Structures are given as C-alpha cells and as structure tokens.
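Lecture notes, continued. The same structure-token format from the folding unit now serves as the input rather than the output. Read the line below as a description of shape only.
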C-alpha cells in the first residue's frame, strides 16, 4: 500500500475519492470543465485517475477489492491535503473481465473522462487487449498505466514495458518460485490446471520455463474455461 501511494504521489505530483461503501453502479463519473486539454486529468484542485477493471459479473469481487485498496490510499493522501493542494479523484470503467470490453473501457476513461493515467486493472485477458491503447496514448503524451493485478509478461516486454509501471511480481517469477519449492521438497512430477485463456497460457509458459531450469518437463496439463461457475465439477 505504501509503495502504491508513494509512487502515485511522486508520479502524479498531485493526487481523491469520496467515502463510498462500494463502487458506483454505473462505474463512471463526469469530467471537470477546468481540465486543461494539454494536460488531461489535471485541474487546479484535483487529479483524475482512471481504473479500468471488473465491477460486474462473477469476477466483480476482484475489481471491487482493488478499488477499495486504491480508494483507501487516496483517501489517506487527500486527508493530508492532497499533493500541491490537489486531491485524487478515481474514475471507474467496468470491463466485466471480458477481453472484448477491455479496450473500450480504457478508451472511455481517456477520451471521455480525460484521466491523467489508468491503473489497478484486473486480469491478463483484458490487459493484453487494452495495452495497445495504453501505448498509443503514452507515445503521444504523458499517459501511463499503473499497478495491474496481473503478472502477465506482455506488460513487461517491448513494446509496452515503457508505458507500464508494475508493482507485483510476474507470473514467470511466481511460477519459478513454486517450481523451485516443489523440487526442493523432492516433488518433481509437476502438472498444471490452468484457465483456458491468456492468463492460463502465461502461467503455463512460466511453469515450463521454471521446470526447464531443473531439467524437467510438465507431466500433465488440463484447463478450465474463464468464468466457469463454482458449481461446475472439475473432477
């Protein structure tokens, strides 16, 4: 939390949210008429930052908890007077954890809400779809994306890496650590059960790379569809 708050304060040199018990149902807000077109998201009194994440559907809990964490950090900053007299206003856009909705959700934040930056997104399938939007606006201004709740590799490599500030470890780092731990315990017959999309593919690749370091290979693998209901048997 401290790392997140510190980076936002330094990078924005500004930084607000209301005391909401939960995200607005429409996941949207209006833009201040005082926004400077040459410096989107910045007004004399506030900074508008965008959060494109999942706020509806079976995975809504992930986005809501990310929103609560970011809101808590921003409220603390705002209570202390903000930064240079400005407060942070967090504007939301719901992608429903659907890949086809990801780029439009971010585009809305940029073009309609005129946010300074975006961040706190959830998921790999959505992230790989909105990264081209991030890069386009990064290359034509000061826009950047911060702190995705995913360790996917795409945001850490060219051409997108310069436009993204990562907070969490990558899936390759995490899966390598898990493989190392199993091998240290003498467990060398390792299989995977992954989500059938870009998220699962990234975890699969990371596990394979981790196994290769030990001269090992996957012995089994199977998948489940994204959004599968809890009641569905995976026997």
């Amino acid at each position: 939390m401290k790392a997140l708050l510190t980076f936002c304060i330094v990078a924005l040199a500004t930084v607000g949210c209301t005391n909401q018990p939960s995200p607005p149902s429409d996941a949207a807000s209006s833009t201040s008429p005082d926004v400077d077109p040459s410096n989107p998201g910045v007004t004399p009194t506030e900074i508008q930052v965008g959060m494109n994440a999942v706020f509806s559907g079976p995975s809504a809990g992930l986005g809501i908890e990310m929103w609560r964490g970011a809101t808590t950090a921003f409220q603390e900053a705002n209570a202390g007077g903000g930064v240079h007299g400005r407060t942070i206003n967090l504007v939301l856009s719901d992608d429903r954890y659907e890949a086809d909705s990801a780029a439009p959700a971010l585009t809305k934040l940029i073009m309609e809400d005129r946010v300074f930056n975006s961040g706190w997104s959830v998921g790999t399938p959505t992230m790989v779809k909105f990264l081209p939007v991030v890069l386009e606006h990064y290359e034509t201004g000061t826009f950047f994306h911060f702190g995705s709740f995913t360790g996917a590799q795409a945001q850490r490599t060219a051409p997108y890496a310069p436009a993204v500030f990562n907070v969490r470890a990558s899936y390759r780092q995490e899966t390598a650590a898990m493989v190392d731990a199993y091998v240290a315990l003498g467990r060398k017959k390792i299989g995977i059960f992954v989500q059938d999309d870009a998220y699962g593919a990234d975890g699969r690749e990371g596990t394979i790379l981790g196994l290769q370091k030990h001269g090992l290979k996957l012995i089994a693998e199977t998948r489940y569809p994204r959004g599968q209901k809890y009641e569905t048997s995976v026997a």
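Point for the exam: Helices lie at 2-12, 60-79, 99-111, 124-139, 171-184, 198-212.
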